[in-house]
Amino acid sequence: MASLRGEAQLREDIVELGRRLWARGFVASNDGNISVRLDADRILTTPTSVSKGFMTPDMMVVTDLAGRKISGERNASSELKMHLAVYELRPDAKAVVHAHPPLATGFAVAGIALDKAVLAEVICTLGSIPIADYATPSTAELPAAVARYIKAHDGLLLANHGALTVGSDLYNAYYKMETVEHFAQISLVARTLGGERVLSRDEVHRLQGLRTMYGITAPAPICTDAAETAGGGETCQVVQAPVTDGSRLVADSGAAPAGARTSPAGDTEIRLTYRQLAALIEDAVRTVGSGGSDG
Ligand SMILES: [Zn+2]
Prior knowledge:
The chain is of the alpha+beta class. The protein has 8 helices and 12 strands. It has helices spanning 4-23, 80-89, 102-110, 120-125, 141-150, 170-192, 201-213, 274-289; strands at residues 33-37, 42-45, 61-64, 69-71, 95-99, 131-132, 155-158, 162-167, 222-223, 237-238, 260-262, 268-270. Helix 2 runs parallel beside helix 5 and helix 3 packs across helix 6. The radius of gyration is 20 Å and the shape is globular. Zinc ion (ZN) binds next to loops.
């Protein structure tokens, strides 16, 4: 349970993270919302109809887990319903961030999930970022669309709308939003330059092993097998990776650059040595580890 002192800090944290969302262009106008659990029965959240870049601690709204206001001069966003669905389904989730970061939202509008095996640190942390079906904002449809994927994922794209991340605290959820947008940016650049070269299925399984070794918490395991993915990302984090043989950095003949090879499906993959992977994971762990409330 958050003490009064703790609640004051959480209000300050939400103000700071709202400022960052606005400063980075992740929200326009009065878009976006942030929430955090105060205790077993109460949520602290951002007010509606306010730019998230210019909030003050006294503007926050306290509600119960059904979204009924307990205190606050302003009202919570109608999108709070989506946050409440997360809290109901994910007892481990302590905070939720929703924003409309333009590149990630562009992928959501194009109907392209961020689920290719291209960045080791993203595979180790978020796994993959699926797209929740389109639903009218502020209606009960949206929590239902989110509910389908949120048990297995900490980050989602919302079709034709934006993105949603959850975390073990406010900063952890916010940093995941940064990662989603950064991943979208890198994916867009790679696609502009001719397409992503994709890590092999073997490498993805090795990353899953490293995730375990480094104690990176995730709501569900990574899966790459078509049979496992029958649930469509509802029970595991589907990562698109080609099947290949071998386990080392492999040079290839043909058009692909050294270190890359093209699978029968036409995806080009990159192979990394264990040492390169370990260095990437250590970076990722440092990033996750710095996600404390000190910012
Ligand atoms: Zn929205």
